[in-house]
Amino acid sequence: MEYITPYNLDELRVLTSKWGMPGYRALQIMGWIYKKFQTDFELMTDISKEERKFLKEKFLVHALEFQKEIPAEDSTKYLFKTKDGHTVETVLIRERDHLTLCVSSQIGCAVGCKFCATAIDGLVRNLKTEEIIDQFLQVQRRVMPQRIRNVVFMGMGEPLANYENVRKAVEIMVSPWGIDLSKRRVSISTSGLIAQIKRMSKDPILRDINLAVSINAPYEKLRETLMPISKTNGLLELIQTLKDYPYPKGRRIMLEYVLIKGINDTKECAVALGRLIGRHKNKFKVNLIPYNPDPDLPYERPQLAQVYEFQKILWSMGISTFVRLSKGISVFGACGQLRKREMV
Ligand code: SF4
Asked: Annotated catalytic, 335?
């Protein structure tokens, strides 16, 4: 038995024609799984009985086992178990008029940002395409008839360090034969892996989706202390790579900036960040995220007044700046806080 979800339409067509099925069968199967979210082959009623039986013996759809859901006021955290016994966390965020799903791309993370709870355990392994897609399918099936319209790769892990699996999952999410989300409603949030961002900029599947990059400090040295990855992916080169990123006019790259009390939340930092962006104001928007404290880490959340002061300085420099008061904080599902908390 193998999983059907890593296949794209062309690949599934090759298989179904090899098995002597009609040419339209692959699209029909995709429609059941990604449009109707029907994952039981037996219930795909416009496919012949023999073929349904054959498909059921050949393919699995769900790669994860549902464990439990933890509801909060504005979000729900879902815990899944992989076949090899690891916990995967996914968070559904309820916005005013739509649902956003925050998916994980790795178990743990090797990047090692000092303020991040996921980093504490290091990297266990990459999630496979079927494990990323199943986070969507399982949560979507649970919230029917509501539809998830946005996906952010902002859960556990560095998505660009798991490039191939993330790419395939995004292909399934944005293709007309797949889940068919708008490319503008899928976001990859990265710690700033320069080589992978360059690769993404030339990739027809990934280059038009939203790119969010964690900056977190306007100075090279400070960024290196918060994000050791910065030693090999330097801040200035990263910013230049983003300035060169071939987005169409009007699209902006999101610079994520987690504000940590007394570390990177000063007025000087705000001015320095503005200068870093310089004359490329139309290429970026800045997202300020007040740090979400974790009991195992020594960092603190700044006062909101400090956050708004930081925002005002960037505004005064003509930079589009938002404050994100993280949803999901009460279930430890906010950015950088998805971890195997159930198991510690
Ligand atoms: S913030 Fe993101 S990239 Fe950094 S350690 Fe945490 S999960 Fe990894």
From this structure: yes
What spacing in Å lies between the alpha carbon of 191 and ligand 1's midpoint?
7
Q: Quick check: is 269 catalytic?
A: no
In the chain, what are the domain boundaries? 2-60, 65-343
Q: Considering the domain delimited by 2-60, tell me its CATH architecture.
A: Orthogonal Bundle (1.10)
Catalytic residue among 51, 89, 130, 131: 89
pLDDT at 72: 84
What separation in Å is there between the alpha carbon of 213 and the centre of ligand 1? Answer: 11
Residue 147 has pLDDT above 60, yes or no: yes
Average pLDDT over the chain, rounded to an integer: 91
Query: Contacts for 24-33 with beta carbons within 8 Å, 24 or more apart?
Result: 25/51, 27/177, 29/4, 29/55, 30/177, 30/178, 31/177, 33/4, 33/5, 33/61, 33/137
Cβ burial, residue 24 (10 Å; 0-12/13-18/19+)? exposed
pLDDT of residue 248: 83
Q: Which of 145, 17, 151, 128 is closest to 82 using CA atoms?
A: 128
Confidence of residue 338 (pLDDT cuts 50, 70, 90): low
For residue 34, which phi and psi values (nearest 5 degrees)? Answer: -100, -10
Protein residue closest via CA to atom 7 of ligand 1: 157
Measured in Å, residue 99 CA sits from the centre of ligand 1 at: 23
Q: What is the pLDDT of residue 130?
A: 98
Confidence bin at 207 (pLDDT 50/70/90): very high
The domain defined by 65-343 folds into TIM Barrel (3.20.20)
Q: Amino acid letter at 40?
A: D
How large is the average pLDDT for residues 211-220? Answer: 95
